[in-house]
Amino acid sequence: MTDFFKGIPAIKYEGPNTDNDYAFRHYNPDEVVMGKPMKDHLRFAAAYWHSFAWPGGDPFGGQTFDHPWFSDTMEAAKLKADVAFEMFQILNVPYFCFHDADVRPEGNSFAENTKNLEEIVDYFAQKMDATGVKLLWGTANLFSHRRFMSGAATNPDPDVFAFSAATIKTCMDATMKLGGENYVLWGGREGYETLLNTDMGRERQQAGRMLQMVVDYKHKMGFEGAILIEPKPQEPTKHQYDYDVATVYGFLKEFGLEGEVKMNIEQGHAILAGHSFEHELAMARELGIFGSIDMNRNDYQSGWDTDQFPNNVPEMALAYYEVLRAGGFTTGGANFDAKLRRQSLDAEDLILAHVGGMDACAAGLKAAAAMLEDGKLEAARNARYAGWDTDAGKTLMNCDLDSIAESVLANKTNPEPISGRQERLENLVSRYL
Ligand code: XUL
Ligand code: CO
User: Fold this and answer.
1) Which atom of ligand 1 is nearest to the CA of 294?
2) Residue 183 domain flag
3) How far is CA 171 from CA 115, 116, 137, 253, 302, in A?
4) What is the mean pLDDT for each group of 10 consecutive residues in the chain (433 residues)?
């Protein structure tokens, strides 16, 4: 045991009326919601990078956190792992997620990076065994080191493509070894700063080829988890190729990979793309590529990716409604891709941030389940489209313009507008919150 979380108890469910900061009010892991324990709906994961690797910088100031593991040695990496697993157990989160660069010291070469990663993977394996905590997904950080400044797969320099491909291979190996349930690709620098120096055609082909290699390797190694792409429109690059769910779907179709790759959808990224979170979730469901979520929230005033812990239950209820309509998670889960504010220096801040986020998710899930079980919203949606279920509606889909024009003339078709009843539906949603 380290003394990082000294004095902080394991968090238990005490119900909505408790006065205890260190308790769940809504997250009751074994409570059955729509026929399944809440923990199996929510499948929470903690993110290693924000909680343990982020130093607290912003564009105007550097490190505010001063953790004892902030040094590039294997000893420090192991201390960081000890503290991380202590947090997972205090919170009772079943999963975690990591990038290679979060967990191992940066080496001077690919070989050194790989050796360091392998050593920490063995250390993780022991800790996972001892605690029962599992890996939701692994990924490669192909955006922080200066070698990736002009992209990884989409870099103009083939050596960077090669270094990136080799790094992805080692991270897929690590994920597989630890029994990870997914492998994520987020291309933070797969985009451009200016078209003046960018060959978009080449870069898109390079990204497509890299993705094909990832899928091929997944099958070669027998990895049974899902490959997930995490869309984001910009930041760090001015424009990112994986802009949003619909854009990524077009990309997957172009390279014939729509049956191989699913989406990891992040709340804050949806907002940056000018969408709501539920829009992105619904789009992925309709396209058959819904996979997993990165749960967080962006500040609507700041216009950048603030990665805050989620706390807006009415919004989250609408998001979970779409998750439930998608049939829930299979290999996916809810990764808290969220970080403390840089002034939140205490160990308890990290715990309470997760407690609040987990409770908000649970409250959102319960409201969404009630909405779905009650069926009023779905009934209203179905009623709105009922014309399409009639014989005439069904036939219309198989007609052509000529025959439709004839029938509109013959039947004197002259539709009257029908209310969309938005306010009535919004009032209905409020009753479940
Ligand atoms: C960045 C982001 C990443 C991915 C994993 O905005 O969300 O942390 O989740 O690389
Ligand atoms: Co993310």
Assistant:
1) 9
2) yes
3) 12, 12, 10, 26, 33
4) 98 98 98 98 98 96 98 98 98 98 98 98 98 99 98 98 99 99 98 98 98 98 98 97 98 98 98 98 98 96 94 98 98 98 98 98 98 98 98 96 98 98 98 96
- Site of tokens 């063995």: 122
d(CA 282, CA 58): 33
Number of compact structural domains in the chain: 2
pTM: 0.97
Q: Which atom of ligand 1 is nearest to the CA of 232?
A: 6
Give 232 Cα–ligand 2 centroid separation in angstroms: 9
Query: How buried is residue 216: exposed, middle or buried, by Cβ count under 10 Å (0-12/13-18/19+)?
Result: exposed
Ligand 1 centroid – CA 186 distance (Å) = 6
168 shares its domain with 279: yes
Task: Read off the amino acid at residue 101.
Answer: A
For residues 300 and 402, membership in a common domain is answered with no
Among this protein's residues, is 99 annotated catalytic? Answer: yes
Structural domain including 406 reads 391-430
Are the C-beta atoms of residues 190 and 237 closer than 8 Å to each other?
yes
Distance CA 328, CA 306 (A): 26
Beta-strand relationship, 226-229 and 261-266:
parallel
